[in-house]
Amino acid sequence: MTYAVTEACIKCKYMDCVEVCPVDCFYEGENMLVINPDECIDCGVCEPECPPNAILPDTEQGLEQWLELNRTYSAQWPNITRKGEVPADADAHKDEADKFNKYFRANPGGAKAGEMEQA
Amino acid sequence: MSDVQWHKTACNLCYVNCGIEVAIENDRMGKIRGDRSNPKSQGYLCNKAARIPYYVHHKDRLTTPLRRRADGGFEPIDWDTAVAEIAERVRQIHAAHGGQSFALYGGGGQGNHAGGAYVTGLLRALGSRNTFNALAQEKTGDFWVNGRMFGGQNCHTAEDVHHCDLLFVLGCNPWVAHGFPNARDHLNRIRKDSARKLIVVDPRRTETAELADLHLAVRPGADAFLLAALLATLVRRGAIDRAFIEAHTVGFEAVRDALLRVPVEEWAAAADISSADVDRCADMIQAAKAMVVRVELGIQQGVNSTLNSYLEKLLIMLTGHFGRKGTNQLHTWLAPLWGNSQGKVYAPTGDEVIGGLLPPNSFPRAVLSDHPERLRAVFVDSSNPANTAADTMEAERALRALELLVVVDVAMTETAALAHYVLPASSQYEKTEFTLFNFEFPDNFFHVRPAVLAPLPGTMAEPEIYSRLARALGILPGDNVLGPLRAAAARSLPEFDRAFGAFMKDNPAAQPAAALVLYNTLGSTLPDGTGVAAVLWPAAQACARRNPTAVRRALDVPPDVPDARLGEKLFEALVRSPQGMAFTRHDYEEVWSLVETSDRKVHLAIPEMLDWLGRLDVAQTRPDPEFPFVLAAGQRRMFNANQIFRDPAWRRNDPDGALMVNPDDLASLEATDGAWLAVQSKRGRIVVRCQADVSMRRGQLALPHGFGQAYPSADGTRLVNGPRANLLTAGDNRDPIAGTPYHKNVPVRLAKATPEEATAEEEISRRIHAAVAA
């Protein structure tokens, strides 16, 4: 019983979800967030907060890849509990297709994320 | 431009009452988030809280007082007419039959206790202490045991789940139903910490059982046999805390002797638990440094309810897991939610009055008997007995038989539909509210939450409603009398205190209605419309007198403030803390100051309970051949709550309130998942949608509570959404002491619904959910 962050988050990362999560279970990668399935309490408060509708309950069909990705990277990436600066081009990527293949990066996010992007 | 304002308030869906923040935009409630500044819940909330706007804004809110017409329908009337007519009927019935013929049913729900004090004041002024409410169909067996063990029926155990190393969950499913602060968060923490363990006793493999180190899938109705077998095992092993027993309890020998007579293997088998699992459970308890026992309705509404509560308390006491960090404790009260009425009997039904409350299971008899003091007039406040009391047909017959039924509620409930007068209350977010669900230790919390929305036009807050009735009845003095008190309150709290004390001394007749006097004097001077909190003035004084050190710590009061002014400081903080506040802060060892026996010891031996234990017969656990299934009538689920949610749109799943059934049982009926089944008990028959679920035991069924409400469909027809489970329950399937219903053990049989029934139900479901989608 968990929610998972899916492809629509990539390169958008609005982080509104982080502000409302009662148990601080979001983890930050370079250009997306994930949910730790062992910490998520299935409250669903984050779901309507996400502008590109990237957060889905695990009861939805076909989420296996994303559930796996959330589990894997929540163990590697740093915890995020406060909304940071939204990427300037977030709106431009909001309705884009195939973002995983084009942009996904396994690097952790956080303060250094912007610098890595430039490097 | 949108103008979104975030306001602090609390969730009203379970008794944890988590602090929340709600977004108000154009007089409507939108988003909900956890309030990180709430000292109890610290930002936590669950899946249900986000749906609160469906409680606030829906098509079934009442907006005008209603009067029953001779033809059975209702007509709208204005408030002045309603108050004058009700007062006249009250006077007539009172003159003919006296105060004993009146009763209150309800007096608040999971989020609203503020009105309860005021309607109670009105009833007391009429000479009645008769109160029926939900606590007396859930918890009074526990209160009875507490009265005998701890010396007061409102000595109530707290559960320090957050710090335990063994959580023993008995008859509840906190992942879904919560019951302690931040439940899911803490269950996750226990699961992830190999040094902390979880035992779950539940017939069903619940969501919480899935997380457990040990799940004992007890046979429904056999909890007492399992608990006794476990206790006997611990005693036989010597795995009890002799030093604790010696220092803090009396009566151990009688308990030990009774437990040594328990046939452990036979009773474990009756509970369908292997002796090896009983031993494993005992091993885990023996290894625990700090066990906490978390109990709920699974045992309290199960067979042998009061005995279950006794055995559960013995488990805590014999193992010495009490009064330390991570164990069970007692807790303080700002004001006790229930009373202490040991030894009192209610004449019309012969029931023992427990915690000052009468059991809803006896409500029909209290009305329909021929006893001279039978009930003739009932005020129902925030309660819906036509759906929630056992045996719906009998409850409705009693409600119809009353000479006066007044219902105060926010919506047209099933009970309101039977009333002579219906008075529309403002919703819990349109007025200042609080609850007395303050069950924590060592820090205990209180939350006075100001209104976040304006009252819906035509509605009124309960204190105002009862003030008007009290004024019309001559119970509440006029402004010429109250004016000086109001003026004193405007000057200062100490001045008000002196004036109020003198007034009450000079006007003993006003004492029962003190709450109404407070609201109409002190209340008018309180900030942010928190006048309803005026009734907390004497409560704050009493709490500070009882627990001066703990109040001082919680409020961080400077040492130069004398104890005599602590109550005033506490009251001022209460009405100015919209995020909630701690009102007492204890050290763990101070728990013994909360025990009310004269020797401050826990009295372990209760003769009635030891007799009951001695009379237990395993034949009780065998299924009834005529009704071979055991139905839990009133299961807590992800999207059910109490009756206050009436709009079916609030649910994100389980739209029809399905009957959960083991797939093998379904197959043996040759029924398919999702089909319509007929459930037949000795009291009634209902048709429900079924849902195959592997978490259920064979022979076990569950229906949710919180369904069975009528709601206007798209074309305005009122359609009933989901099962009215109490059409199946019988008033006499109840605890012999507390009168609490055995709702977790309703014997039924199952059959496929007829094709006609299935078609009709499918059509109703379709129309309800089409209205939802629209």
TrEMBL record, chain A:
Gene3D superfamilies: 3.30.70.20. Its cofactor is [3Fe-4S] cluster; [4Fe-4S] cluster. The keyword Cytoplasm does not apply. It holds the Pfam family Fer4. GO terms for molecular function: 3 iron, 4 sulfur cluster binding; 4 iron, 4 sulfur cluster binding; electron transfer activity; metal ion binding. It comes from the Bacteria. Residues 1-30, 31-60 form the 4Fe-4S ferredoxin-type domain. PROSITE patterns: 4FE4S_FER_1, 4FE4S_FER_2. Ferredoxins are iron-sulfur proteins that transfer electrons in a wide variety of metabolic reactions. This is Ferredoxin.
UniProtKB/TrEMBL annotation, chain B:
Gene3D superfamilies: 2.40.40.20, 3.40.50.740, ADC-like domains (2.20.25.90), Dimethylsulfoxide Reductase, domain 2 (3.40.228.10). GO terms for molecular function: 4 iron, 4 sulfur cluster binding; metal ion binding; molybdopterin cofactor binding; oxidoreductase activity. GO terms for biological process: cellular respiration. PROSITE patterns: 4FE4S_MOW_BIS_MGD. It comes from the Bacteria. It holds the Pfam family Molybdopterin. Keywords: 4Fe-4S, Iron, Iron-sulfur, Metal-binding, Oxidoreductase. Residues 4-60 form the 4Fe-4S Mo/W bis-MGD-type domain. This is Molybdopterin oxidoreductase. SUPFAM superfamilies: ADC-like, Formate dehydrogenase/DMSO reductase, domains 1-3. GO terms for cellular component: membrane; oxidoreductase complex.
